[in-house]
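Field reference: sequence -> structure
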Amino acid sequence: MAADEVTDTGTDTSRANGAVEDDSGTATRRAPAAGRGLVAVALVLAALNLRPAVTSLGPVLEEVRDSLAMSGTVAGLLTSIPAACFALIGSQAPRLARRYGTGGAVAAGALVLTAGLALRAFAANTALFVVLSGFALAGIAVANVLLPAVVKQRFPDKVGRMTGLYSMALNAGASSAAAVTVPLSGAFGGDWRYGLGAWAVLAATAVPPWLMLARCREAPAATAAAAVPGAVRPPAHRMSRDPTAWALTVYFGLQASAAYIVMGWLPQIFRDAGLSAETAGLLFSVTSLLGVPLSYVLSAVAGRLPDQSGIAVAIGLCGVAGWAGLWAAPASAPLLWAVLLGVANCSFPLALTMIGIRGRDSATVVRLSGFVQSAGYLLSIPGPVVVGALYQHTDGWRAPLAFVGLLMLAQIAAGAVAGRNRRIG
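Structure field:
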């Protein structure tokens, strides 16, 4: 690992070397000011690229299907690939971090993402397009898992604020890709290949700072156990046996499921309520853009609190209210329902903040993030599928929205447990 950690042994040695105590009480060596600036830039650039591979596709999916003779089944498969890749590839991120350091692993992920985005724009058939999309998503999966650990490692005294910063960048990247892909395609004669391929340029900007961090990798700092002759370092904490880790996993999975339902179905809900396609798109953009400022504010506040249960419950209730409004009267106050669901979507940065806070040190956060995100994304896959099936077989939105409301209640319960003031590891 490229960790800068040192366990406090009760002496002033760690503090004399520039260590700070994070919110878990573990002394962690703070990176030099210049190094922290580079890390902050690297975090923002990586976060900007965590969603364009997904959100850039929807606006031009019809053109992609026509060009590649893609079936509706395969098009539907593309909506489930992100969660599957994030789960399966993300589970391997801790192993990559142990071998190459967090900086090296994220740099590799950025390179894979750049190559995948650039090459898929030139895919000649459906199979190659799907494979290259999965290749790009694999690069994202590694960064998904490791960025919370980088924050814990490099900014142990600012976990909430730095998580909020890169969550804000993530939302900005996702919203920008959804809004700009069609105009980009239009600027090149309406060719979707240029509209999608252009995002490889943004991905490439994240590579140099992470390569610099990988080259500056430091040897792991000695822990107290290693410093004492004859001492045996305790075995790694087993996440699968920790109730807090499981509560975080359920919370993460359910909020991801709700987010995919919003991305996949919210515009259709508004259109079926009688609103125009333009209005439905505008309301959806409100839901997405609201997360840009709220992500930073919420994470900064949550990072200062020892217990995040109240925040998890509050934003979950906003989600319940938003879905209930869509169930009862979708066209009566659509802007209000969109705003409430935008607030509810802030459960994602809250989940990332809790991952960083619950782990006692960056090594634990790497493993906790890998466990929570890999299992959580697998848990998120059935939700949008069930909503689609209920919509098809009940010919309306009452049953699907009632189902989503039940998921939100379960998310609130999981968040109340996950947010308790406990440490893992």
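Note: Strands lie at 19-21, 27-29.
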